[in-house]
Amino acid sequence: MKAHPRIGTVGEYKFTVAQEHVIDFATGGMPAVLSTPRLIALVERTARESLYPFLDENERTVGSEIEIRHLAPTPLGQPVTITTRVIGTEARSVDFQFEVRDVHEVIARGLHKRAVISVQSFARRVARKATSR
């Protein structure tokens, strides 16, 4: 890492809930709402992108832990804002607190941890697993 992010470093991502973001069981009167798995992926993206300025060229981050409370539904077509905030760093890991809001309320909050990895080392580890089937 070039430097550890400062406590309080913020990431933000805004999107509008589209068909690719909603649950796949919206039938029989069940409304199409933002799915928890898609929300988790977007929280991870927001945190990951906020760390880009701190990484060396051969480094990336991978999610290693997430704790989420999905508190409220958000329908198709609604704008959503994800905000991540660095709350701790230790060695090669970064801890985040996050909050997700639609235009009406907080819809999710939680904690997320990312590990800083070397691309080459990570690729070797994956290759060993792939060849040892």
Summarize the structure.
By secondary structure, the protein is of the alpha+beta class. The chain contains two helices and five strands; from the N terminus they run βαββββα. It has a five-stranded antiparallel beta sheet.
List the helices and strands and how they pair.
Elements: E1 10-16, H1 36-50, E2 59-70, E3 79-90, E4 93-102, E5 106-118, H2 119-131
Antiparallel strand pairs: 1-3, 2-5, 3-4, 4-5
Describe this structure in words.
With 133 residues, the protein is an alpha+beta fold. The mean pLDDT is 96. The longest helix is centred in the first third of the chain and has 15 residues, at 36-50. The protein starts with 9 loop residues before the first strand and ends with a helix. The protein has one domain (10-131): Thiol Ester Dehydrase, Chain A (Roll). It has helices spanning 36-50, 119-131; strands at 10-16, 59-70, 79-90, 93-102, 106-118. Helix content is 21%, strand content 41%. Strands 1-3-4-5-2 form a five-stranded antiparallel β-sheet.
Structural class: alpha+beta
Q: What's the main sheet like?
A: 5 strands, antiparallel
How much of the sequence lies in strands comes to 35-45%
CATH class: Alpha Beta
CATH homologous superfamily annotation: Hotdog Thioesterase
The number of distinct structural domains comes to 1
Total number of beta strands: 5
CATH topology: Thiol Ester Dehydrase, Chain A
Mean pLDDT: 96
CATH architecture: Roll
Low-confidence stretches: none
| Rg over alpha carbons | 17 Å
Strand order of the largest sheet: 1-3-4-5-2
